[in-house]
Amino acid sequence: MKFLSLFSTIFIVLITRVLGSEVISLEASTFNQTISKGNWFVDFFAPWCPHCQVLEPIFSKLAAEHGDSFESKDFHLAKVDYLCELHEVEGYPTLNLYKNGVKIDGYLRARDFNSLLEYAKTKSEEEYDSKPSNDNTDVAIAPEEVDIPDVDLSPPNPSGSVVSLTSINFDDLTKSGPWFVKFFAPWCGHCKNLAPTWEELGHNLQNKVNVGKVDCTTEKGSRQLQSLQEFVEQVASARLVDITLDDFDKAKKIDDNIMKGLSRSFFSVKFYSSKDPKLATSLKVYTLPSLIVIKDDLQNSYTSLNSVDPFDDIVPLKTWVQSEKYPLVPAIDSENYEDILSGDRLVVLGVLRPTDVRPFIKAKNTLKAVAKLYHQQTKKRGSSEDNRGVLFAWLDGDKWENYIYSIYGLSKKDLPTVIISDPLSSEYFDTSKSGDKLTLSHQARLLESINDAKLGNLEGKSTIGFTEKMFRGIFSMGSEIQKTFAYHPLLSLVCLVLIFGIFWRSCLMPQTRDGRWRDFERGYDKFE
């Protein structure tokens, strides 16, 4: 019996060692506290996500077979359901690496077992080797005096108010923390209109960003030559950053984290240059020089009709950058709505509700997937978009509630949904060619309807009212008449002569007092 008991104990221990560890499930309430010590490789997932369902057994196998080895190096495998908004997770699944509570890396490789194992082994060994060794040798070491500078750890804008900046306090106050500064003049009407909004902004940015204002009628230093020169040199020097293959993944992550809501002008587009042949090979760039744009792992190259020097003609180059300046699926706001919704491209518009978090994330990711698939198909066909581009975007249905109701007849209960907007014809399409409603859940139908909209095969609904439509028709008719006169001068002359003749006969020909035309003017008197 003792032998059997001992055997059972050994067997249980062996089984435990074979099974290894499990993936640790993290809770929202204790997430930050749990990952505050050690290295944590965290899987952000959603139960309904098919990609997450594929990854789950692979990640569990990784923990079961190698979890103990990782744990010995203070490297832990964990998973968490939601927390996306707090940790800037925009898609599922997302794998991030944290060290002592701080994100140090994001996993961007293939999600198969061998790739995950190689990454986890490499990172666990790197972090373990970087830890200071504990040497127990008794050596008397004199404490080193380190001069620690005083650092202000208080959050910016603690009072939530706008700070008046002057030439005396400007440099001292703005040298630490982010500042958003308004330069104004008291007599300026636009400045007066902005004033209450600026005060409200200061309150809303409490503990986030310092908000200040400078009265330019009394403080004129900011318009000195030196200040203007420093600003221009700073902007010019920051426009182009040289990178290598090692910097590339880091640069993409910086763009993801910092360049959210990209980009309303060239000032908010990140430009990089590189002479690294490894990076060119990685991006499959074989013709130099080349200009490429990368959005959510989609890559598009600039092509020019000038084969000798593709960058010699600056006009089409600027046009291309302008057309590519937005992310794959930008959010429409008060700054970019006119450019997007009043441009010349078709807009595949997702109308979503960010306040309803789970459906919002799912709908947004689906819209991104459709956008990727559309651009991949377009690139595969070698299509030039038939000179009609397509832009994908999403609109906050809560914030723009009145707008979506007046333009598209949508209410909150209809969301999330998707429509195709045609700014040129002031129409939108919410049904397919066969009359089925467009939804994000039917991706094939949506893709087919986009092509039908480009070809003019869909029945559209007007985004303007009857009165505006009538006036537009009148102005359009007048424009067509003007074009006809311009292109056919002889016909124009004949029409003008006829019009003048009718006018002269009706208004200018002499009349008798009783209102009858004089007979002799008509030549009738010779028959009397």
TrEMBL record:
Q: Which Gene3D superfamilies match?
A: Glutaredoxin (3.40.30.10)
Principal location? endoplasmic reticulum
Annotated Thioredoxin domain residues = 4-125, 142-326
Signal sequence span is 1-20
The protein's matches in PROSITE patterns, at most eight in alphabetical order, are given as:
THIOREDOXIN_1, THIOREDOXIN_2
Query: By its UniProt entry, which InterPro entries does this protein fall under?
Result: PDI_TMX3 (IPR052250), Thioredoxin-like_sf (IPR036249), Thioredoxin_CS (IPR017937), Thioredoxin_domain (IPR013766)
Name the residues that span the membrane: 485-504
Main function: Probable disulfide isomerase, which participates in the folding of proteins containing disulfide bonds. May act as a dithiol oxidase. Acts as a regulator of endoplasmic reticulum-mitochondria contact sites via its ability to regulate redox signals.
UniProt protein name: 578_t:CDS:1
Gene source species: Cetraspora pellucida
Lineage, top ranks: Eukaryota, Fungi, Fungi incertae sedis, Mucoromycota, Glomeromycotina
